[in-house]
């Protein structure tokens, strides 16, 4: 990915991180789980960012990726019968913890 794409992705994350974290928090059992879900969503966004065709609807795409990632987590959790475990769900090898309270955008 080019430097420009990387900068665009960073700008997108800064604009949408509050709404993404809110979705993750709704599906999580704890703040730590919300942080982990947030990281997985960011990875999924990064992996699909170059394939987004309509840049005008990118915020809708971010929301759908966030929601689908969290729904997949819940389905996997239910299928495994785990009450508070993330066993079998693919998490990144190294997780960079997000701020527990995302910054709000001014404007």
Helical segment count: 3
- Main beta sheet: strand number and arrangement? none
Based on CA atoms alone, the radius of gyration comes out at 14 Å
Helix-strand category: mainly alpha
Low-pLDDT regions = 92-107
The separation of the N and C termini measures 29 Å
Tags for this model:
107 residues; 0% strand
Note down, in words, how this protein is organized.
This protein has 107 residues and is mainly alpha-helical. 63% of the residues lie in helices and 0% in strands. It has helices at 3-27, 31-49, 58-80. The longest helix is centred in the first third of the chain and has 25 residues, at 3-27. It starts with a helix and ends in a 27-residue tail after the last helix.
Spell out the blueprint of helices and strands:
Elements: H1 3-27, H2 31-49, H3 58-80
Write a short abstract of this structure.
With 107 residues, this protein is mainly alpha-helical. It is 63% helix and 0% strand. It has helices at 3-27, 31-49, 58-80.
